[in-house]
Each structure stands twice: as C-alpha cells, then as structure tokens.
Write a structure and sequence with these properties.
about 190 residues; globular; about 20% helix
Length: about 190
Amino acid sequence: RSRFGRSHKRLHAGIIKEFRMMKNILKKYEIPAALSVLVAVSLMTSCGSDMVENSPYVGQLIINEVSCQGRDWIEIVNVSAADVDISDWSVSDDLYKDHKYHLPEETSIQPGEYLVIKQQKDLEAGFAFGLKCGEETAYLFDAEGALVDEVELGDPAYGSTWGRLPDLGDLWRETCPTAGDPNEEYVSISY
C-alpha cells in the first residue's frame, strides 16, 4: 500500500461529498439535467486543483520517528546518496492549513544524517503546533510545498515514540526515544 494512499482516499471522499452536495442543490432548484452534468464536470475538475502534489524528493528524505508526548519532535533522515538542501522545507500536522514550520535558510542534510525538528519552546525556534498521538498525521513538504512524506501517528505508550522499526524501514510501531539516532525497539518495564 502506498504511503500516500490515505491522502488520496481523503481527497476522493471529499470530492464525493462535494459532488453529492452539488447534486442536491441542482435537484432542489430544478436545474435541467444537461446543465447539471456540465456543473458536475466543472466541479470534479476544479476539485482536483486542491490536491497536494508529491515531491520529486519522495523516497530520498523520510520521516523516521515522531515524539507526540511532552515536547513534540519530528525526526527526518536523508536516505539518498547526496546532500539535500532543505532550506524552506516545512513540517506540519495538517495537509491543507498554512500553519507550517519552515526550516531556516542554508539548512542541508547529508546522506544518512538524522535531523530532529522540535516543537517551539521559550525562545528556541521550532514548530508552534502540537502533535496528538493517535489522532493526527505528521507531514514533510519540500520548498515548493509538495508532499515528501507523511505518517499517521499511532498512540504509543507514555515514554515511547512512534518510529520506523527496523530503523528506516516501512513498518511503524512504538520505539524508544532515539532523537537523532537509529530507532530501537521499545521495551516496557513493569514493576
């Protein structure tokens, strides 16, 4: 299953909902069938313009681990073989709203490098939004606003994070907090 499948399903559901609303309006005001088809086709083509484009960087930089408890943070990793300039790239917890945190100018990430972007605290720079475990999605966008990666946040146990395991893999699960380092399996200690 594509990591972008959820976004496309949400977009498709939104288009269907708007189409049904438009159909009810057309029926209510008794607009002729021929005009109804024209309006529906116009609606369907205009809805596609809101779709978030996928970045050419998909698969080169990935979200690898997310902390959504306490001071939130998002870890990204360059899995490509080249340095990537990520000046003005952004992270967000919303696909469409413009409350994104933009990375500073002259920020680059080397091959294999882990970069941790933290939630803003006092005078320290960072993203101003919070991440809600089990309820939200974390997004990474390139400087053009195209989607690079996304992860639907799980609901990890207190003291753990939501990360790829094995490190840099495709499966997401509870992990030990390892900001800036390879992910490790979370082991719960009970007394």
